[in-house]
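Progress narrative, work stream C.
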Amino acid sequence: MSDTPEWYRLAPAEAAAKLGTSLEGGLSTAEARRRLVRFGPNELQERRPPSPLAILLDQFKDFMVLVLVGATIVSFFLGEVADSIAILIIVALNAILGFVQEYRAEQSLEALKQLTAPAARVVRDGHPTQVPARDVVPGDVLLLEAGDRVPADVRLVEAVHLEADEAALTGESIPVRKRVDADDRPGLPPGDQRGMAFQGTVVTRGRGRGVVVATGMHTEVGRIAGMIQAAGQPETPLQRRLEQLGKILVLACLLVSGLVVAGGVWQGRDPYTMFFTGVSLAVAAIPEGLPAIVTIALALGVQRMIRVNAIVRRLPAVETLGCATVICSDKTGTLTTNAMTVRALYADGRWVEVTGRGYRPEGELLVEGKAIRPAPRSALGLALVCGALCNNASLEEARRGRERTWEVRGDPTEAALLVAAAKAGLSPSRLGELHPRLAEVPFESERRRMSVVVRGEEGAVVFVKGAPDDVLDLCTHVRMGERLLPMDAHLRRELRAVHEEMAGRAMRVLGLAMRSWSGAVREDLRAEEVERDLVFLGFAGMIDPPRAEVRDAIAECHRAGLRAVMITGDHARTAEAIARELHMLPPGGRVLTGAQLDAMDDAELAAAVADTYVFARVSPAHKLRIVRAFQARGEVVAMTGDGVNDAPAVKEADIGVAMGRSGTDVTKEASDMILTDDNFATIVAAIREGRAIYDNIRKFIRYLLSCNTGEILLMVLATLLETPLPLLPIQMLLVNLVTDGLPALALGVDPPDRDVMCRRPRDPREGVFARGLARLIAVRGVIIGVASLYVFLLALSVTGHVDLARTMAMATLCVSQLFHSFDARSEYKSLWQVGIFTNPALIAAALVSFAALCAVIYLPVLQPAFHSVPLGWGEWVIVGGTSLAGALLAGCYNLARAIWHRRAVVLRQRG
């Protein structure tokens, strides 16, 4: 920090002038584009992803492939030219297929990284707007609030109770209070430069505004970027298990291949041919493509999730989604639309109905059906003024074609208060001019209220809005008309009854209060100073209607064995009314409040969550306890969050879900998944996709290992029976190329089973071969291997033509495996139940693979290299009939297994 740039010692206005920007209007869009070209994107240097050439060369690093290539080159110089060229071509084609798989996986993960890139709020062309953080340029006017990660180095212009966690730079865990004084001294650690906000630090409290002075590698973080490299995608538990499985399979395949070679040599066969056979069998049988296909399936699944508005930030979350048993969801904006409208006011001891819908400031205030205009000094008038001034939202008129619309910038609840004031004839912008803000104590989820100090007609005035119970507790008087009444027990009970009635009508209720202020107005006013001895003005009751699609999503949760739990800061009766409307609260289901939760220890809470479906009046700290209570019962928990204080609970949950629209940067970074539409139904859709992805991974594991088992069994049985080799090395490699690649990839994009959400969640502890998958692999592998050997022996005994027998065995092995690619689509259903044509990609893959097989059999230019001969209709009847018989036999086994499974489910449900 000794080389401190001059920005640190310039006053904000001087910094803005030097950067050629306006502190009010920011840069123009055109100027921002020019500066982006000039200064480059706001990014730190990081590890570059592997180049396509590096990915291609990696395909030839496998030990067995290198052995095969080396042996092929030797055989080329020994005169086996045709065989050598054919083997090298197949190895090259396999490498190209592997390259395509890995390159697609890398591209998918890079696209995912771009989708989860942070955004920033800047002022462009005089209006606040959101841009990708990488597009922030020097001179941009940046807006900051609690939960934001600062995207660049900023000279602060405004700081309202602004604090930042600068541990990333200084190692100090205590947040630093920011200021906008012009006398920050150069040469000090960043924690002492309180007029600056630094890239990578986190706003923990308050809000601020500043001009960007440095981006990318020119920031303080950029100077130490060598120590800050982007973390790669972590391997999922399944990928780690498959990697371990792959090592075991490699050893097993090498052992079996060695036994085949040793057995052949012992039987007097040519050692050179047997060596080639063993190496080719190992190359064909080792499922080297399994890790890449798993990555592709996960990445493609993530791409599908993006289409349903869910961005998965960490691949392990895809697996965990299929195990989720509890979804803990916020109410506002997730279960509801978050399009708030004030429907009722209570002030001056009377009810006031507010008409109109949405954010259009058109409507009336009605008392007993008659329109009224509130008196300026009445409790109702002051309550509306309080709602409009104790407010950081804005309402702007916009035109879309000929239609006039109103756009909200800021919190929807605050926007609803602005609209209510406008309906009463009070202009929010005019009120702001008449009563400029002098100080602010921002909203905090622990306090559940916000306060401002404004200039009034007779001195400074404090306006407070927040949770009704908390505001009432701070009030010593009630305003009735222009009179002040002491807040006695009787009045307090009456007001609480009004609050209960509003909440019982599913309204979100805010309490509004005020007081005069005679003290000094300072930037660092504390809540305890201003939020006391308040005068109660009234209640504002808002409707936030449930999302139309959420009820169906909750019904789907019930079918899938998932519990949907509501967590909200709203009143218990409001939350209960919404939960009942959504069919979220079953008979006997409990509603637990934050106060009740505080009275419980962890063991009592773990017992209570068993039948609790609504948590009301809870704070972010409660959320963490709720997550741990569910986890203590063995539940796999998905938890939503948006505020900075939600981040610990989101991080603690098995699946942390952040809100894309309303979520803070900190919560998004703590999450596993981001909802771009903040919709509960999207969580359910993501769980559906997560289950489907895991199913597809099991499908191609089953397919690949069954096929490889069949190939190994064919060669082992032939060696034991001392018959001629049923497949030559080049033919084994061809089968591996034709059947292992495209069909396995197509299974990775198989559409979800129709009843994927009619099953209980998967046990997260289950292994790769759980639920009988190992038996399915073994049975199908035996059928494929025995069917291919049967056709080989039959052709050999009838014709005595070894090349014909090998061609028929090769065709039977390929066709049997292609049949298996279709019956591998379900573990309990027949192909007819699943639908033959529901996976066009698999049909295309099978046709391409079969066409490659036919080309080898019928094209004269390929026949010598692959030692194949043309097959007539009779031979194809044998090949097709045997392959089909094997598929039908496997189908009978699956049917018996399905019947047993259904019977076990029925018995479990009865018992």
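Work stream C, second folded protein:
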Amino acid sequence: MQVAGKTEAVRLNKVLSRIETSADRGLTREQARERLENGYANIRPESAEKTVGQIFRDNIFTYFNLVFTLLALCVVLVRSYRDLMFMFVIIINCAIGILQELRSKRALSKLSFIATPNAVVIRDKERIPVPAHETVLDDIAVFTTGMQIYADAVVVSGECQVNEALVTGESDEITKTTGDTLLSGSFIVSGECCARLDKVGRDSFVAQLTLEAKKTQQKGRVSMMISLKRLVQIIGIVIIPVGITLFLQQLRAENTIAVATVRTVAILIGMIPDGLYLLVSIALTISVLRLARNRTLVHERGCVEMLARVDVLCVDKTGTITETHMEVKGTALLCADRYNSEDIDILLADYIASSPDDNETMAAMREYFKASSKRRANKALPFTSANKYGGVSFYNDESYLLGAPEKILLDEYGRYKDEIEKHSSQGYRVLLFAHYDGDISQKVISSRAFPLALILLANRVRPEAPGAFKFFAKQGVKIIVISGDNPVTVSQVAREAGIEGAERFVDAGELTTDRKIKRAVSEYIVFGRVTPDQKRRLVRALKGTGHTVAMTGDGVNDVLALKDADCSIAMASGSEVASQVSDIVLLDSNFAAMPAVVMEGRRVINNIERSASLFLVRNIFSLLLALVSIAFALELPLTPAQLSLFSATLIGIPSFVLAMEPNRNIVKGRFLKNVIVNALPAGLTDFIALTVLIIVCMRRGVPSGEMATMATIIIAFVGFQMLYKISRPLNSLRIALIVAMFAGFTLGAILLRDLFGFYPLAGQSIWLVIIFCIATVPVMLFWSLVFRNNKNNDMPRSSEKPM
């Protein structure tokens, strides 16, 4: 049972018959209790979001953590506790991941899908309040203004206006009377009705979509975190035979078990990009926090990268391109010889004053037609989604209809088609106002309607929309407009918003097969009359052609398409289900925030890719040295203490500083492939220099302490070349960073030489260091030229100009 937002599985203990009771009587308390006990309660299915337990499990039980835990266990067994410092990286990384996901979960819980947790039902002829999850099948529920419908129901008495925009995508409020269906997820705008709960819990409309969303496979992302996990998995397999061999080799060199273990673990840790994993984790988390300050909620850190790589963005018309508020733009007279503009204004003022409708369309008309009404109708027909029109009668021979032209004119529509479509092509929603000779109480047009005027309405284009779409066009992101409205109207609105190619539109009703949809996504920009299922198929078709697709949505009808998109963005003002399945939630429901979100993604991804190469330099030469040491029984020249100074001044600090800089470049290529190629020149240079150094030192009898000091200086010199390379173009911050790191390394090696294991160098060793450092310059230049031939792997540069 659901309590305070929780859910549990529902099991039917006993099959019960349906009960049709009167609206004023309702179920008896005994009948309700029996249904509650036997699994017929309105218990929602499990949320599409992660549970707290799943969040902890997914962040703790990873292959990455397993590798380091086993290495830490080896160190603990030999009681070398001071060498466990590397585990802090693992602990911090886990904590960051868990805290970020828990924060997102808490923020999302505030966007409650069921706005009213309590319900009112009629039992034993009494109205009693109960929690929504304790209502049962066949309960007579009372729905009043402002309530959200929590289960599918059928109206048995009363009348109300319902907004189904989050469910069907239609923005107009619809009148529901006896016999009409209320869909879960819609809202009561006005009025009151009693309705029999017809589908509850897992059987309701919203619940079925939630279950379908949960069944959808996870998105196949190739993000930085996933790439790093794969790298760790590969290295985790490689280090098993490497570690065993190195350990045995150290024992043969007459080392104790403790010394052999510590040295082996030190080499293996150098082969694993642990600091890189932490850099990515922290940088993404800082990015998420920056977005949060701009009222943007990120569910998963990895989606920031995916959004930065998006090249197709699917948007809806209403709420994204246009404001939800509708305006009347004018009228077009169809019977000017008998009715002028003033006459139409007066007639429409009378109609509006007598109409029972209270929706966006009527609000817009009420604001535009402000003439005083001097009479009230004796009959009124509310607008319904089935009829697509409403009406009023003042006398037996004076009735008027207002609604969709094709529904009112019927066979006469052809006479006015050109005039109507002329206005539709200009982006207007067109309604027909007509005099009607028949009886509106019959609810079916049985007599002729005489057209008087066309009412032209439109949703105003958001002021910030053209700028946002211009930004995406400059960034090479293709905009696809998916809407349930008339494609001609949507096309015109898209043109007003400055969307490139908006003149290429199609009615989705013509796209009856997957083959037609696949062909259409390469030919058209605007898709009108799109059904919820077609939205999902359009997203899949775009992904199938190799695009990285983002989609915005706010309704229940968008859920499945959002789930299938590479990156999904929900509006907080929409449904909770949409917010749950989406990667990003715009808390202010403002599409203008999207450029800032994309820019933040590009900043962090490009900078991480640039900085990450510093980490892999150490991993590359450590792995190659380990293999050479095994093959030729060479002495390993570096110690963990010396590597710690190198790592701090030439990897850790510079990488974190550079990762926070502005960067607006488009993200290209695969993260891991780019990083490895960028790191190879320095990594190979270090490997070659250290291998030759070991051979020379062994032949000249240089002490191991001096050799270790020389090796550290050489890899530091290569490290500064690498730092200079990734810092171009230079600015004041980057110059200051290079100078500070040089000073830090030099002072550490001189003033703290005992702490970091540096030994004084003899004259021969000093000359060798100078020769080797000079030699590394052409070697690194050579490798840089070799790997630069592949232009897809060029070093990402900051868009910021030198200061």
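Confidence is low (pLDDT under 50) at residues 1-11, 111-116, 791-803. No further action is required on this item.
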